Structures are given as C-alpha cells and as structure tokens.
Amino acid sequence: MTNGQKQKKPDPCSFVIFGVTGDLTHRLIIPALYNLAASDLLPDKFCVVGVARKRMTNDELTDSLLKGLKQFATRRVDDAIARRLLECVTAIEADPSDPASFDAMRERLDKLEAKRETGGNRLFYLATPPSGFLPISQQLARTGMFTENGAWRRLVIEKPFGTDLKSAKALNAALLKLVDEHQIYRIDHYLGKETVQNILVLRFANGMFEPIWNRYHIDHVQITVDEKLGVGHRGSFYDSTGALRDMVPNHLFQLLSLVAMEPPARFDAHAVRTEKGEVLSAIQIQSEEEALRNSVRGQYVTGRIGDVEIEDYRKTPEVRLDSTTETYAALRLVIDNWRWAGVPFYLRTGKALGVKRTEIAIKFKQAPFAMFRDMAVDQLSQNYLVISTEPAEGIDLQFNTKVPGPAIDIEGVEMKFRYKDYFKAEPSTGYETLIYDCMIGDNILFQRADSVEAGWQAVQPFLDAWKKAGARGLKTYRAGSEGPEEAEALLTRDGRSWRKLA
Ligand code: BG6
Predict the structure, then answer these.
(1) Domain boundary among 158, 183, 201
(2) How far is CA 460 from the centre of its chain?
(3) Rounded CA gap, 92 and 18, in Å?
(4) Which of 429, 386, 436, 391 is nearest to 193 (CA)?
(5) Distance from the CA of 140 to the center of ligand 1, in angstroms?
(6) Which of 230, 330, 359, 361 is the Cys-Cys partner for 352 at CB 3.0 to 4.6 Å?
C-alpha cells in the first residue's frame, strides 16, 4: 500500500509456500500470484517453492495448482501467463518432525536460487494450520534460513494468532525468539479489501471528515459482518473457535481500529501501526459481569436462506450435539480516549444470517429540532455514513432532504458511491496487495504483535464470561434471520437500534 509506487517490481526472490497442497494455496495464493503476474508485478527473477510433507513431483504439484487456478481465478486464465508462473514452481519435501529434511531443503533452496538468480531473498508463507507455525519456524531458524545476510528473509502467517490472550502472547514471544518483528507479516485478509484500505484515505485525504470525527458529532458506530454461509465442512475448527474468536479480535477490530485511530503523523508502517495499536489498547477492559451485560451470543437453528434449508448448527458434522459455541456475537464496546468518550461501538457478526453484509455505519448526532419542531423526531431519518465491502464495495451518505412541493415534508435519501461504477479494476482475490506488499517489504497492512495482543485483551473478558456461563445465556436464532432478537436490546436500552439489513 505504498504511496503511489505501486508499479514498482519487487526485488528478485523465492516465494516458499508451506502447506502448498492445501486449500489456501489453491484458492487464494496461486490465483493472487497469477493476477500479479498478469499485471506484470512479479519480480523478473522469481521462483515459487512448494513445500509439502510428502514427496511429490513438480508435475504433480503444478497439475494440481493449475487445476486450482482454473477453478478459483478471478479473471480469465491466459495459458501463456499461467505456464510462465507454473514454470517457476519447484516441489520440495520437508517435515518439521524430521529436522534433516530442513537441512536438505536449505541445500536445495541455495542451489535453486543460484540458478534462478534470486539473490537469496526469501519469503516463507505458512499456509498451514496454526499448529505448524512454531515447529516450521523453529526449523527455519535452526537452519539459518531466517538470517538476513545482505538478503531479506520474511515470514508470513495467517490468523488465528493464538486462541486467547495467553496463547497469543506465548506465540508472539516464541516467534520473536526465532525471527525479528520486522520480518513477520501477520496477514488479516480484511486489509486486502479495497474499501478497508480506503478508510485511511477517506479519513485522512479529505479535510471534511476529520473535524466531525469525534464524540461531539458522532452518536455511535455500528460494525456488522454478517454472513449467509453456515459452518459447512469446518465443524471441527469452528466448534472449538466460535464467532467471537473467528472474527472479532481480527477482522472486526481491523475495521474498528482504522475507523477509530488517531491520524498518524506519517503514512508509514511504524506510525500507522502504532496508532492502530493505541486505539485497540484504549478499548475499555470490561469485568466479566460487564461483559455479560454488554454482549449477546447466539447459535443458529434450522431455517431457510433463500431456497436452501439450513440445518441446526448442532447437526453440522464434527460439532458436538450439546455444543454451546456461538455462531453469532454482538458486543458493546467503549473506547477510553478523548475522541471517543461516550460513543459506543456496537459490533455484530454471525453465520447463517439472511444477508451477507459487511459495513461500518457511523451514526451522526441528531440535528436540534428547533426549526422543524412540528415534525415527530422519529420521522427525521438518521444521518449515517456507511462504509461497506459487502454486498458491494462503496460508501453511502444518508441525509434528510425536502420532498418537492409546497409543504415542508422531509425524507431521508442516500448518496451512493460504488467502486465498480467509478473504477474499472479487474476483480481480485484480495490477496494481491498483501502478497505484493510482503515482497516489497511494506508492512503497513500487517498486524504487529502489540495490536494482536491488544485485540485479545479486549475480547478476553467476553471469552471468560461466556465460558463460565456455558449454555446459560446462549440464545438461538433461525438460520436466514437477522440473528437473535436479544441483540436488539443491546441497543434499545441505549435508545438506539441496529440498522436494518435489507
Ligand atoms: C475468515 C473466517 O477469517 O473470514 C471465516 O475464518 C469467515 O469464518 C471469513 O467466513 C469471512 O471473510 P469474508 O472476506 O468473506 O468476509
């Protein structure tokens, strides 16, 4: 996300993927590399090394990657570009439980890189389950593969970064013994979305928002990430995770921190990440009683989404029949700083809901009614600025306007900006920017250890309180609905209401 330098080609490097046979590699990483290749944004000297535990030939690997590319590409696949990309791929076998395999890998990498003239720059992408992060990193460190000796070495990992505050701290501490913070790129794919990156530009490249971006003008903020999909084949992972862990300390907090952070002094990674970390650590840490009062958790039961009948969450394969895991979470948070004192942030996210919608809605304070005192207050529509990525990327502004005619009738209208109407960008996976940034060494869009820990710290009271309460307090909601009815009360008791999701 570097200032206007997007067209620069990255340094020569090797792109080493652990977990090359997995879903993430096929669905997102290779299609993103393909899109970068198609935009001529891969290094001139480049190689992709696919690491798997089991031996496989280059042909087996490239056949499988090509199949994935054809299935998941976001644009038409040009055979010549795909061939050029896949020609760069080499399969290597390495298993962290067999240290000798990493010694052998190091030798093969050295030889391959000499041939490909990549200059020793290496990006290690751990597209593996989190249980692989440490064992793989330990072997990479032991064999000296993280050592930066005139060449750069980077480590890319995907969420989850821990499962609570304690495990996140332990993971960060263990990783930082092996590799330096500046080498670690913690990916949150929400930061690959255009509209999410655009929050920074909207706020800080326009003079008109900042003066009203505070408690004097903003009544509250609603952050919604609603999904139609149920849990599907991820029962085992999801049942030990739940909506809160899966979405809040990472994706929803990325949105919250970009909306709520103070203006950074410079547009560089250190300044931006410091401000994001600051605002996350200003989220008030609630007691367990407060956490229960300020949250609603729910689990979906049988319902319909369109024509599709969705079964009870508890009937999902590999989900416990008496599971109390939440598939919906709503929280009321407060940020303890001068800008946001008294401005609640309401967050909600859930699976198997009636619509897919991701939005940040900023509700401005009501106008004083002196001029229109004969109108019922509730007839004036609310002033919202809505930044959305789903169902369409864009920004909406809602305001009141006079209905044409002799009488003063007032109606709420919307001004809509849609990315696709203004810009003719090719559809992307959302990973292109992130992967490109890793290669050029720009970590502005990646999470630093302090932000990860601040995020877990804010959700920890909810995790603890919900664990203790078990089935007590777990609400149900019909698949295809807007979530548990009780979520409404979280706002109505403050005299507010959630935006209705059309
Ligand atoms: C992932 C979660 O990180 O994000 C999934 O593990 C969720 O459960 C997904 O579905 C949502 O991403 P998006 O981009 O579809 O909003």
Answers:
(1) 158
(2) 19
(3) 10
(4) 429
(5) 29
(6) 230
CATH number at residue 344: 3.30.360.10
Tell me the per-residue pLDDT of 252-305, one tens digit each, with 9 for 90 and over: 999 999 999 999 999 899 999 999 999 999 999 999 999 999 999 999 999 999
Q: Which two tokens stand for residue 381?
A: 């529509």
**CB distance 246 to ligand 1 below 6 Å:** yes
Q: Give pLDDT, residue 413.
A: 92
Range of the domain at 129: 5-158
pTM of the model: 0.94
Domain count, the chain: 2
Hey, which residues does 297 pair with through a beta bridge?
329, 474
Residue 387 CA to residue 500 CA, distance in Å, equals: 15
Tell me the mean pLDDT in the region 39-57. 95
| Same domain, residue pair 357 and 469 | yes
Q: Residue type for 176, please? A: L
Tell me which long-range contacts 58-66 makes (C-beta under 8 A, separation of at least 24): 58/89, 58/90, 58/91, 60/91, 61/20, 61/21, 61/89, 61/91, 62/86, 62/89, 64/21, 64/26, 65/20, 65/25, 65/26, 65/30, 65/89
Same domain membership, residue 358 and residue 459: yes
For β-strands 122-126 and 153-158, DSSP reports them as parallel
Q: Which residues are the active-site residues?
A: 251
> Given a cut of 60, is residue 5 above it in pLDDT?
no
Which ligand 1 atom is nearest residue 227's CA? 10
Q: Is the CB of 227 under 6 A from ligand 1?
A: yes
Percent of the chain surpassing pLDDT 70? 96
Q: Residue 258's closest CA among 168, 350, 345?
A: 345
CA of 287 to the centre of ligand 1 (A): 28
In a domain, 416, yes or no: no
- Average pLDDT (416-438) is 89
Nearest CA to ligand 1 atom 5: 246
